[in-house]
Amino acid sequence: MVGKKPRSDSRLNVARYQVDGSVPSEEQTENEADVAGQTRMEARAQFVEISIQQAMRRGDFDNLPGAGKPLTNLHQTYDPDWWIRQKIERENITGLGPPALTLRTENAALDARLDAAASEHAVRELLADFNARIIEARRQLKGGPPVITPTRDVDAEVERWRGRRAARFEAAEGARERRAEELAAMTWRQRRRARREDA
User: Fold this and answer.
1) How far apart are CA 174 and CA 153, in angstroms?
2) Which of 69, 86, 145, 160 counts the most CB atoms within 10 A of its CB?
3) Which spans does this entry mark as compositional bias, Basic and acidic residues (predicted)?
């Protein structure tokens, strides 16, 4: 039994080969030098460095976003919630934060929301909800910035909505009439081609 070699575990050998490509050997240890006189860690570091250099020569790192620009937020103090703030800014998420700030941003975009409303009743509901939230935010005692967003006069806003709506209808009707005149001036083949392009 003295001259007998210990049996190797084939599963362990396969796992070692899949992880680092090593072939089991009785003489080889982790710190032993490879053929080129380097340890495995040095060989891996050299391989990574060569791969990076080749990618640089190919231009794989050219035109990356942020290339040549200074790092942002270096002048600011450390904020443990920096990633939340960046996510909110990048994704343009609304509805978060104190009511005073959310109402200001909503006030700036309220005309567009009103223009998207289909009826006068829907406009009045939007304005009533907006005014109620402003009044509720003024009554809150939690602190935060003061609410300086003014309430909107419902009747005046409905009149402005009607005027914008009438202007949109007039512009659409004018565009429709101009298009009809252009089509009337064309030959039947040109009209057919133009209608295909419009569709």
Assistant:
1) 32
2) 160
3) 1-10
